[in-house]
Amino acid sequence: MGHFSELAIMEEDQSLRLSHIDGKTVCTACFGDPHLKKAVADNAVANACDYCGALGKGVVAAPLTAVLEFMLPQIELEYASADQILPQDPETKDRMFPEDEFDARELLETYIELELPNDYDCSLVADIADALPEQDWCLLNPLGTPDDEAIGNSWEAFKNVVKHRRRFFFLQHKDRDLDHDLTWGEAAYDVPELLERIGRFAHDHRLIIRLAVGSLWFRVQELGVGEHDFSPRRMGPPPYELANMPNRMSPAGIPMFYGAIDQATALAEVADQNARFASARFETLKDVLVLDVRRAPDVPSLFDPEFAKDRAVAMFMHSFIDDFRAQIDRKRRPHVDYLPTQVITEYFRTAVSGGDDEPVLGVLYSSTKNGRDAIVLFAENSDVVPGDADKTESDDDLWLRVVEYDEIDHVAAAAAPPAPDLKGHRAGEA
What we know:
elongated
């Protein structure tokens, strides 16, 4: 088949307009997006770039037509012809909502924000825009709620349901409460689908990480008057009967191990008054998989052929992770405000696994006090290697061990003095 026949087929199959760029080549340096750079590298056939003038001893540039052939299907994941999407006025036959449509140049520069670092004269963006289908563009769902907002709305509704309506049995069917909270236009996800999407995203985007055996974590407890020399299990998670306070990841009655990367962070998490504290440094005796919510993941590129479908979830994950880091007033109603993160923690503990069905055994997050690493491990008191005084069973399957113990006096930071009342005073007056 001849070259011009191939070009005609590409134009007909994808509605591209390629004749004006036939023979033009572009190099990797002309694109900022790594996936477009790869598309260039995969199709490179020339040793010179027609746009930035780069020269190479080997092939450094690809036909722009080949790059366009890669770009268009990715663009159409989120954008479409305004003629096909926007409704028509039944009388005039004109498209309604003209404010929701835009031309190809605006699509590339404003909506996609295509990064072309060497395109000083705008010739490359002009050629790409002119090669796209001859149509006005709009969002794929311009009249509905964007997918990232729909997921976010579903999360907010889920938090409302679990805080104020019901706590249990929302995984068996579509959540009617959640459906009633949102209008049809907001495209809500039911609770099982919402949790499943979060879990799948965490798995696909490597938010489930492995902490190697020997990871070290500090844990502190306040010493009562006359108390000292706490045993390893006394420093570990509380036994069931003493797990009577709700925490960020665990409700009352379900013990877990809360620790921090250093002693200062462990103290900051629990110490709000002058007191003497016992401090223990624990070592993990096996590898553990944990959900890492210390920072939000990058939003995948629209031109990422593998993960572009996850862009909406990635955008939502930024606000989702903020909930894990939110400051909560424990004196107010922590049993209610902690519920959403407790449910998510329980979901990852029971329904999400790594390779070979290896269970997730914790959540790694940023301390709300100083931003350093903190952790919750799904460990119970019986998972701690006991001291001689409370050794009652074999050490098989125990996976936390105290390697360092200390007792410290903590002086709480002084509260900031109240702001002076300047009402009625002029600047410079005492």
